[in-house]
Amino acid sequence: MKSIKIKIIFPIFMMFILFTSITIAQIRAVQNNLLEVKQMNEKYFATLSKAEELKLNVVQVQQWLTDISATRGAEGYNDGFENAEEHAKGAKKNLQELIKINPENSGQIQSIEKSFEPYYETGKIMANAYITGGPGKGNATMLKFDKMAKEVNEQVDSFKNTSNENIKNVIADIQRDIYVTMGIMGVSIIIAIIILIMAWSYVSKKVVKPIFNVLTKLREMANSEGDLTQHIEVKSNDEIGELAQNINLLQDSFRNIISTITCESSQVGNIVNKTNNNIQDLTLQIGNVLKTTEEMAASMEESAASTEEMDASAIEIEKAIEDISSKAENGTEVIKEISKHAEELKQNAVVAQQTAQTIGMAANKKLTDAIEQSKAVEEISLLTDAILQIASQTNLLALNASIEAARAGEAGRGFAVVANEIKKLSEDSKNAVSKIQQVTKRVMDSVGNLSESSSEILDFIKQNVIKDYESLVNTGEQYYKNAAYMEDFVSGLSKVLDEITVSMESVTKSIGEVAASNNETAQGTESIAESTTEVFDKSNEVLELINTTSESVNKLQGMVAKFKV
């Protein structure tokens, strides 16, 4: 038996061999072209470039030596030898590099090198002849130099032409290889098309046609609406033939399975109908139980809610009583502090009253003594009056002395001076006494004002301050009595609240136990209701599943009925 894999792989293998051969030929052709291009780039293009540089060096040597000959080495034009030497070195360097690049043409290059040396030396001789001897001496050498220059240039041009020919030959070889490759590719494409047509014809006959026959039979089986009595007939002895035989076997198996399904589905339909009726009765009974349980749960929830409200109210009352008791205890402490401060206030007021009385009496005595002592200022006033009288009398005596001195003439001139001094002293004393009287008057006025103010202060202390301290003492005593009364009252209230707190704790505990019991009962009832609801839901789900199963069985019977077995 020939394998379908071989039938498919064989033409593919032939195509692979063909394309591999074509690819190898193309790779070799491309490699040859690459070698030729590389050689052209590294050798022939480099040779041509160096030949161009050599040509330039030869021409520049001739140019510079000719220029310096024409200028005869004049100042500013005497650098021809240096530039010619530089290009001569460049020419020698290019010749050596050309020998390395083109060892096969070393004879031609060495010939150029041998011609260049005498050419360069002759040029220098010509230039020196023009510089030293002028045209008469230099013209004789110039003809020889021009001839040698022509020979060297012809040799360089010949080498350049050879390089160009080499490049053209390489390009021609590359073009020829490309044309050959294109011809091979054209022939290969034609052969590939022929092989492809042959392979397609072979695969179509050996593979596609048998598969098409199998598909045609399968399509006829599908369009016959479940007819499993038709068999596929394929004469191929490969995998396609095996596929057709296995499809026929599978068809026979399906026919047996369909017959079994038809019988069993009928029995399942009967069982599903009976189960459906039983589940419906069970669902109805569970619904009644669920309704009764929900009513019980609602009643228990209401009872539990009322008990919880009572428990919460009792707890709030207990907290309020505890709060009042706590505040009463704090009030007792505060009242004790108030009583203590009232007693201290009373004691401080008594001490302050006594101190004020003592200070007032002492201040009164000191003030009286000071007023009596200030009367000495009046004596100062009397003394100043006496001094004024003395000053007046002294002034009169000085006036009399001046009169007597005037009468005495020259003899009384010294006495007149003394009299004038006495008169001035009398006037100064009078002025000083006047100021003392003014100050004394102010002092006496101030003492009088101080005496009046001090008397008023002492009267205020006696009439107001002492009485206020007495009122403060009485107030502190009354606060102390009130605080004592409040302390007794709050202590009694605190005891009563403690007794109420103990009673409320007992009541709260009882209500809490009742509430906990009700909650447990309500939770139990809710659990029963939830379980019943879950059973009811599951029952409905089972009922739905049974209905779905019944529909599926009906559909299955309908589908099985379509098959012809």
Account of the protein in words:
With 565 residues, the chain is mainly alpha-helical. The protein folds into 2 domains: 4-211, Up-down Bundle (A middle domain of Talin 1); 313-501, Helix Hairpins (Orthogonal Bundle), CATH 1.10.287.950. It contains 7 helices and no strands. The model has no long low-confidence stretch (mean pLDDT 78).
Compose a concise summary of this entry.
The chain is mainly alpha-helical and 565 residues long. It has 7 helices and no strands. It has 2 domains: 4-211, A middle domain of Talin 1; 313-501, Orthogonal Bundle (Helix Hairpins).
SSE topology sketch:
Elements: H1 4-71, H2 80-101, H3 106-133, H4 135-223, H5 239-374, H6 376-408, H7 413-562
Helix pairs in contact: 1-2, 1-3, 1-4, 2-3, 3-4, 5-7, 6-7
Tags for this entry?
565 residues; mainly alpha; A middle domain of Talin 1; Helix Hairpins; 7 helices
Q: What's the architecture of the largest domain in CATH terms?
A: Up-down Bundle
The H-and-E topology, N to C, reads as: HHHHHHH
**CATH domain fold name of the largest domain:** A middle domain of Talin 1
| Low-pLDDT runs | none
User: What is the overall number of helices?
Assistant: 7
Largest sheet: none
| Helical residue percent band | over 70%
Shape: flat
Tally of separate domains: 2
The percent range for strand residues is under 5%
Radius of gyration: 75 Å
CATH class of the largest domain: Mainly Alpha
The number of strands is: 0
Structural class: mainly alpha
